[in-house]
Structures are given as C-alpha cells and as structure tokens.
C-alpha cells in the first residue's frame, strides 16, 4: 500500500469518526450512520491491504 493510499484511508476514517461524533452531539441519526459507514469502509480497506502485504511477505520468505 502506498503512502498516498494509507493517508487517504486514514483521512476517510477520521472524517467518519468526526461525522459520527457530530451526529451524536446533534442527535442526528443520519449523520451518525454515515460516519460509522465511512469509518468502517476505511478500516476494511486498511485490513485488506494488511492481508495483501502479509501474503507478499510470506511469498518472499518462501522464495529465498
């Protein structure tokens, strides 16, 4: 995963968390849901990238 991808995922995660908090403070269920969705999507992308990196590491270890 490139640095740019990591930064974009982190920004989306933080944006989602902020929306979630604002939704909590204003009692806005829609904004709270949007925030939770954005945060979850970003975390899932990050997890997928970690799995890819781990797979590459294993492949590299067997090739040596």
UniProtKB/TrEMBL annotation:
Can you name this protein?
CsbD family protein
Q: Where is the CsbD-like domain?
A: 5-56
Q: Name one Pfam family in it.
A: CsbD
Which residue stretches does the UniProt record annotate as biased composition, category Basic and acidic residues? 1-11, 18-37, 47-64
Query: What Gene3D superfamilies does UniProt report for this protein, alphabetically?
Result: YjbJ
Assigned protein family = Belongs to the UPF0337 (CsbD) family.
The organism that produces this protein has a lineage beginning with: Bacteria, Bacillati, Actinomycetota, Actinomycetes, Micromonosporales
Residue numbers spanned by region Disordered: 1-64
Please name the InterPro entries in this protein's record.
Answer: CsbD, YjbJ_sf
């Amino acid at each position: 995963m490139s640095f740019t991808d990591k930064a974009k995922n982190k920004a989306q995660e933080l944006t989602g968390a902020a929306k979630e908090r604002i939704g909590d403070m204003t009692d806005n269920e829609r904004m709270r849901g949007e925030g939770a969705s954005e945060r979850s999507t970003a975390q899932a992308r990050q997890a997928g990238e970690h799995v890819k990196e781990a797979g590459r590491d294993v492949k590299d270890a067997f090739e040596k």
